[in-house]
Design goal:
The structure is a homodimer of 115-residue chains. Chain A has eight helices and three strands. The first copy, chain A, is α+β, with helices and mostly antiparallel strands. Chains A and B meet through helix 1 and helix 2 of A and helix 1 and helix 2 of B. Chain A binds a DNA duplex (30 and 30 nucleotides) through helix 4.
Chain lengths: 115, 115
DNA sequence: GATATATTTCGTTAAATAACGAAATGAGAT
DNA sequence: ATCTCATTTCGTTATTTAACGAAATATATC
C-alpha cells in the first residue's frame, strides 16, 4: 500500500522529530531528557518518539527507571538506513539543530529528569 | 528555518503526489490528463501540482490551451534532484504505481481532456 | 472581440495532526 | 507490598491538510 510507503516521509515531516533524530545521533537519551531539550509536554514528546519508532528510525531500551531511545542501527527498511546515514544531507546547516547539539553537551541529566 | 527543510518531506507525504511524480517521469502530462488518471476533482489535482512545484519537483509550461507539467531537470535544491533520481528506491514495487503506468500507455488525450 | 474550454482560486467540509494537562500505567527503589 | 517517579494513554482543542463544487480567470480559436 502506498500509504505504508509514506509513513516514512510523514515521520520526517515534523521539525521536532527531526530535532530528535539529530539529538539521538549524538547520543541516546531518555524521554525526560528529550523533553527538557525540546521544551514540550512529555506526552507530546512520547508521541513523537512513538511515531519515529513505528517508522523504524529509533529503538528503545530500558535502563533502570528510564527508557532510553537509540538510533536504530538495524532498520528493516533500507530507506530508513539511507536517511539515517545521510541525515545531515537532508537537514543541513540548521540553526535550531546546532543549538540543540550545544545544549546536549551541557545537559545535566539529574536536573532534566527530576521535577 | 527547519520548517522550510520540511516542505520537501511534506510534498512527498501524499500518495497522490507520489503517483503524479511517477507519471511525469514517464512523460509530461497536462492537468486534465493527470486528473483523468487520478480520478480526482481538477481543483484538487491543481493543488497537488502546485505543492509539487513549490517544493521544486516539477515545472510547468504552456502548450496551446494546456498547461503541461514536467519533472524538473534542474532543481535548485540538490535534495530534490536526489529524490527524483532515486524515486524508485523510495516508492518501489507499488501496485498502484504500476497500474497508473499501464493506464498512461493507453491514455487517450482527446478523451481525457474533453468533457 | 466573443466564445469555448482548460485551469486556478474561493469557500466549505471532513479528516488528520500536534499540542496540552490530567489520569492511568508500569517498573525500580524502599 | 508500597511508594515514587518516569512514561504512556486519554480526552480535548486548535491547526493543518485533502477533498469537493462553483465561480473566476486565462488563453486559443473562431
Amino acid at each position: 500500500m502506498l500509504n505504508e510507503k509514506i509513513k516514512l516521509f510523514k515521520a520526517l515531516s515534523d521539525p521536532n522529530r527531526l530535532r530528535i533524530l539529530k539529538m539521538l545521533q549524538l547520543k541516546p537519551l531518555c524521554v525526560c531528557e528529550v523533553t527538557s531539550l525540546l521544551n514540550l509536554a512529555t506526552s507530546t514528546v512520547s508521541k513523537h518518539l512513538h511515531i519515529l519508532k513505528e517508522a523504524g528510525f529509533i529503538t528503545e531500551k530500558k535502563d533502570g527507571k528510564w527508557v532510553y531511545y537509540y538510533i536504530n542501527n538495524n532498520p528493516a527498511d533500507k530507506r530508513v538506513n539511507r536517511i539515517l546515514m545521510e541525515l545531515d544531507f537532508w537537514i543541513s546547516d540548521n540553526q535550531q539543530i546546532i543549538s540543540d547539539i550545544n545544549k546536549i553537551e551541557e545537559l545535566d541529566k539529574q536536573l532534566a529528569c527530576t521535577p
